[in-house]
Amino acid sequence: MMVKDTVRSASDLDPTIPGKLLRLLFHDCFVEAGGPNIQIPTGRRDGRISFAANVRPNIIDTSFTLDEMAKVFSAKGLSMDDLVTLSGAHTIGTAHCSSFNDRFKLDPNGNLTVIDSSLDRQYAAQLTKMCPSGATDGSVTVSNDPSTPLLFDNQYYRILLQHKGLFQSDSALLNDVRTRNRVLELANNQDSFFERWAVSFLKLTGIGVKTDDEGEIRLSCSLPNNR
């Protein structure tokens, strides 16, 4: 209850926190291991080692194809349906311009070229205004969901149907017959999204859980106890 109240209070002050926490949990579970109300098992132990080299091979890049994403998910015991459902986390949060600005470009005269044909041209034009040339220092961020960026809802899937998925990896879900029908279902039924999210999210939090003498309870979150 203390953690829940603390997170809720912090989120009231900074509405971007839920998206950041979701991203943190996703990366933590994959590397080392708003909406629906989910009872999550607590007491996950910390790892004793942490190597930067372990991060990139174990997480999804925004430029990934569906096959590349499915390979990473499958290695963690997650299905294609889990992939589509957990991608719904992009209904909140923000992204740096560098994670999607390779999908379009402006020539010196300001003419727009949409490199990724799965991206809506009008949306691409909006993104060029939000991400001016040279915005690569991380200071500029864009909402993953341009419609309801602070609500955990199924709007993410609805914008995919409009070809306004921010990332190439988002658009891949709509463009492939293996996942398109699930996107359509979740776009049309928020209750179904919430139900599926609860199941897939619990599977995610159970990846690589350490028990008995594995891992430790850190005295300082940022450092193993032997440091």
UniProtKB/TrEMBL annotation:
Keywords: Calcium, Disulfide bond, Heme, Iron, Metal-binding, Oxidoreductase, Peroxidase
GO MF: heme binding; lactoperoxidase activity; metal ion binding
Cofactor stoichiometry and binding remark: Binds 1 heme b (iron(II)-protoporphyrin IX) group per subunit.
Disulfide pairings: C97-C131
A biological-process GO annotation: response to oxidative stress
EC number: 1.11.1.7
Binding residues for Ca(2+): T91, D145, T148, D153
Catalytic activity: 2 a phenolic donor + H2O2 = 2 a phenolic radical donor + 2 H2O
Superkingdom of origin: Eukaryota
Cofactor: heme b; Ca(2+)
Domain Plant heme peroxidase family profile: 21-225
Pfam families documented for this protein: peroxidase
Positions with a binding annotation for heme b: H90
Family: Belongs to the peroxidase family. Ascorbate peroxidase subfamily.
Protein name: peroxidase
